[in-house]
Amino acid sequence: MTTPKNDLFLKALRGEKVERPPVWMMRQAGRYLPDFMKLKEKYSFFERAENPELATEITVMPIHQVGPDAAILFSDILVIPQALDVEVQMVPGKGPYLPQPIRTPEQVDALPEIDVKDRLHYVYSAIDLTLEALENEVPLIGFAGSPWTILCYMVEGQGSKTFDKAKEFCFAHPEAAHKLLQKITDVTIAYLRHKQERGVHAIQVFDSWGGLLSPEDYRTFSLPYIQQITEALHEHTPVIAFAKGCWFALEEMSQMPVSALGVDWTISPQMAREFTSFHTTLQGNFDPARLLSPIPEIERLTKQMIDEFGTYKYIANLGHGILPNIPVDHAKAFINAVKNYG
Ligand SMILES: Cc1c2[nH]c(c1CCC(=O)O)Cc1[nH]c(c(CCC(=O)O)c1C)Cc1[nH]c(c(CCC(=O)O)c1C)Cc1[nH]c(c(C)c1CCC(=O)O)C2
After folding, report:
1. What is the CATH number of the domain that holds 75?
2. Any coiled-coil ranges, and where (predicted)?
């Protein structure tokens, strides 16, 4: 793997001193970018994701137009259920829809043994092309959902504020739930290991729905599987774990072999530092809705955020994905406020 010219992000992940914190935005590829919206009119989600040329174009778009210090591959966490023969549709205006969700232990047992490298070959072709297109300017992040977050969609069958059916399955059929979580974990490790082999510089695991679990249930149904993933991957590239709404788990997560932990905006930088004993690199935690504030306010809040986290062992980011209604100049103002810090 070659070191990119801009290696601020990788330095911060290694805990090295940097002249200013690196910055990128979760879900930066797509959504709010007008050129992305044009592609979206012409091609469906899976047409974009499964076509390496289009995926590359979309991945590189924010690098040129907004200027973050890292790229994140255009794809989705739900390619994993799809690789396991659980159909995923992206319904415009509604989000993911899985017409045949997992609702019984028998369905878990019937999931196929797969060669994920073969099933998701298009992701790996997109990595090859994207690394070329980036011309070694910035590092490329590969990602996957956490096993719990993937179970949420596989069982619920669609997005939800509470994921009641996913919880019901875990609490009514814990044995089958653990079997499913282990299956997702094994496939995810194979999937991400091969991304590392193809040359991504870092991995992020998104536990977007971890915060729906109690601390005890988090320890049962999510944490052990993220732990397995980080243990399997951390020797090959840095690994970032982002568990939304999981401030209560930060202390335990800081014991895992991670290079950084993502935090959302419901915890203060000071508390996040204390919970992680001041030794873990932290990433976050600007409220994405705050990008709707006037630009001077975005600049003030971004500076305040860096003042509070400190420039050492810190990666500036949002506390969750960028919203589709963010004006591009506001996203740029956030990125530039970090770049001009100090
Ligand atoms: C929970 C989750 C999903 N997907 C993802 C997560 C974890 C991060 C988070 O919590 O936001 C991760 C994801 N999804 C997508 C990316 C690509 C990179 C990027 O945007 O930076 C990434 C990193 C593309 C996408 N994934 C999806 C789209 C929108 C559909 C489309 O473009 O046709 C995109 C660009 C579809 C999707 N996929 C998912 C949802 C809820 C939706 C619908 C709502 C929406 O995000 O627009 C599941």
Report:
1. 3.20.20.210
2. none
pLDDT tens per residue across span 296-333: 999 999 999 999 999 999 999 999 999 999 999 999 99
> Does a structural domain hold residue 107?
yes
Residue 170 resides in a domain: yes
Tell me if 72 CB under 6 Å of ligand 1: yes
pTM of the model: 0.97
For residue 1, being part of any structural domain is answered with no
- Between the CA of 145 and the centroid of ligand 1 the distance, in Å, is 11
CB 59 within 8 A of CB 130: yes
Residues 49, 81: Cα–Cα separation, whole Å: 15
Q: How far is CA 290 from the centre of its chain?
A: 20
ipTM of the modeled complex = 0.92
Return the residue matching tokens 């509604």: 94
Domain membership of residue 310 as a residue range: 8-339
Do residues 204 and 255 make contact, with C-beta atoms less than 8 angstroms apart? no
What backbone phi and psi angles, to 5 degrees, belong to 279?
-115, -10
CA quadruple 146, 150, 151, 152: dihedral sign: positive
Q: Is residue 236 part of a domain?
A: yes
Show the tokens assigned to 289.
């809705």
* Cα dihedral across residues 135, 139, 142, 143: positive or negative: negative
Percentage of residues in the chain with pLDDT exceeding 70? 100
**What is the rounded CA–CA span in Å between residue 178 and residue 182?**
6
Binding positions: 27-31, 46, 76, 153, 208, 320
pLDDT in tens, 38-65: 999 999 999 999 999 999 999 999 999 9
Please, are residues 108 and 176 in contact by the beta-carbon 8 Å criterion? yes
Is residue 293 predicted with pLDDT exceeding 80?
Answer: yes
Verify whether ligand 1 is closer than 6 Å to residue 30 (CB atom). Answer: yes
Which residues lie below 8 Å from residue 278, measured CB to CB, with a gap of 6+? none
CB atoms closer than 10 angstroms to residue 216? 9
DSSP 23: B
